[in-house]
Amino acid sequence: MRFSLIIEIARALMTARIKQTLVAAVGVTFSITMFIALLGFMNGLNDLLDGLILNRTAHVRFYNDIKPNEQQPLDLSEEFKDWFNVIRSIKPTVSRVSIYNNEAIIRTLQADKRVLGVAPKIAVQGFFNVGNVDLPAVLNGIAVEEEDRLFAFSDYVVAGDFMDLKYSANSIILGKGAADKMMADLGDYVQLTTAQGNRVLLKVVGYYQSGIGELDNLQSYVSLNTAQKMIGETSSYVTDIQVKLYDFNLSPGLAREYSSIFGIDADDIQTVNAQFETGSQIRSLISYAVGITLLVVSGFGIYNILNMMIYEKMDTIAILKAIGFSGSDVRYIFITIALVIGFVGGLLGLIFGFIACLGIEQIPFETEALPTIKTFPVDFSPKYYLIGGVFSLITTYFAGFFPSQKASSVDPVEIIRGK
Amino acid sequence: MEKKKVIEAQKINKFFFSPTKTQVLREVSFSVNKGEFVSVMGKSGCGKSTLLYILSTMDTDYEGKLFLDDQLITGQSSEKLSRLRNEKIGFVFQFHYLIHEFSVLENVMIPGLKLNRKSREELEYIALEKLKVFEMQDHALKKANQLSGGQKQRVSIARALMNDPLIIMSDEPTGNLDKKNSDLVFGIFRELVVEFQQTMLMVTHDLELAAKTDRTIEMEDGRIISA
Ligand SMILES: Nc1ncnc2c1ncn2[C@@H]1O[C@H](COP(=O)(O)OP(=O)(O)OP(=O)(O)O)[C@@H](O)[C@H]1O
Ligand SMILES: [Mg+2]
């Protein structure tokens, strides 16, 4: 069978009904445009919201948890070994929160091919002393450059230069909420009492704003050295080792692996932040559902126009069959019409969808909570264009399937006799 | 010399089931030889068109056997029948069925394009030659719906000839034309038979035309009464 003939006939039938054909194509264009715009926008927002937490969270965090010893003296006793022992009111032991031999651990992690980077951290509890009020504070002692490289620290420093934390001793970047409460300006000094009772004066070199109010009220940042000095520890004192991986899906495995090797506790991002994944999955599910609904509706448009065309062109179908076109030839003709409408409409839809996304990206979107965001976020991932394109062809194929089935089973004798 | 049979019907019975079971064709047997011009006559409703649709392979719901070019075609798949129809049978209807979206030339070419044995250029040349036979070459580029009734009928005969079929079947090809056009079309048929030894089977009401054919098959009530 000469395929060009099928196309030629399909084209002739379409040009004969050009207006309806265009309407059907515009339907596809519209739904694909909406599909792309919707998914691009939704997933842009998703990425933004996820990024809010996920970008700043270590994929794996190693630390020593404070918990009761699993092996109580009674369990070690030979005498009660075979007994069922119940002990009440166990208290945690004074285990060290600092990670033993952390330099070796960091070196081992850095050598791992899955690991993008490692940043040590010290968490220090304390109070800011403002007049006669004490504000609770959590100070993170960080390796400034690593923290920035792995967790985009500088993005959230809204005033001052984050590198000052490293270069000037006893400096602090205050959480925006805490800074507002204390009315601390850049260059001011704030007094802090650590949980151990040490008093220190810290110079404010910047503000930190994450967009999550609770964090901004509580968290402030100092350098690793300053933190160690504040609590009177040596430079080998580190309470957390944060690891970022190339592929964060590997985090549970890596956490388990090293946790047992080093004998320390490990959290991975997937376990801790499972709810974020669920939220974004549901959001994209909704956008897919809306997009596909639109496509199905436009599919009905194509279904209608094809049915009408077949009804009007019964004579033509009868002649073609009398001349020697088989049922499947006739079916291909109408499937071709459907696919051409789907392809052209879909392609235009992808282009308009892209333009719509560019437009959305220009709309200003400024919010206190998101200092780095100036306009609406849009995800331009080619994935959605691929899905949109494939779906436009699939729906048009199915929309064309039944009408073309009908056309292929037209009995020419009935039509010719009917004249 | 024994004449070669182009088409042969053996004991064809045809029933219609709606509204009630009625037999439209009864034990119809006959054959048409190569180069023969045969006409079929009979009262309205005696089953001429029904017979022709069966012979053209478009209607497959019948009893009996049908041979085309000495090949049994009863019971063949519809794909196979389509191909046979395309290659070996030319059909001319009472109402000039042309495809209005295409030009006259394209309409004539379509059976050739479908057969797909020759290049487009060759087919265009052949189609123009066919149109010349009917003095329609000047209208080749017109759209099919810009022609008069007689012209359309000539084009549809040209189309039936496109693949040089074994046989041309026509159902009252002049039924819708005035005397002048009807004579013209019949003249062309005659010429095709005489000059190109084209085999023809024509259903007609017109006694005068039937008399000018080689042989007339007369039907009555679904039966052949004289062949
Ligand atoms: N689809 C059908 N269902 C039932 N009966 C039919 C059907 N088609 C035709 N008939 C009947 O079959 C008989 C033969 O019809 P046919 O069209 O073959 O007649 P004809 O000889 O061609 O008549 P005319 O000269 O008027 O064209 C008629 O009695 C007609 O009513
Ligand atoms: Mg008839």
From TrEMBL, chain A:
The keyword Ribonucleoprotein does not apply. The chain crosses the membrane at residues 21-42, 285-311, 332-356, 384-402. One of its GO terms (biological process) is lipoprotein localization to outer membrane. InterPro entries: ABC3_permease_C, Lipoprotein-release_system, MacB_PCD. It is a multi-pass membrane protein. Residues 21-246 form the MacB-like periplasmic core domain. Keywords: Cell membrane, Lipoprotein, Membrane, Transmembrane, Transmembrane helix. It holds the Pfam family FtsX. It is found in: Cell membrane. Residues 290-411 form the ABC3 transporter permease C-terminal domain. GO terms for cellular component: plasma membrane protein complex. It comes from the Bacteria. Its main location: membrane. Belongs to the ABC-4 integral membrane protein family. LolC/E subfamily. This is Lipoprotein-releasing system transmembrane protein lolE. It comes from Cecembia lonarensis (strain CCUG 58316 / KCTC 22772 / LW9).
UniProtKB/TrEMBL annotation, chain B:
The lineage of its organism: Bacteria, Pseudomonadati, Bacteroidota, Cytophagia, Cytophagales. Belongs to the ABC transporter superfamily. Macrolide exporter (TC 3.A.1.122) family. It comes from the Bacteria. GO terms for molecular function: ATP binding; ATP hydrolysis activity; transmembrane transporter activity. SMART domains: AAA. Keywords: ATP-binding, Hydrolase, Lipoprotein, Nucleotide-binding, Transport. This is Lipoprotein-releasing system ATP-binding protein LolD. Residues 7-227 form the ABC transporter domain. PROSITE patterns: ABC_TRANSPORTER_1, ABC_TRANSPORTER_2. Its EC number is 3.6.3.-. GO terms for cellular component: membrane protein complex; plasma membrane.
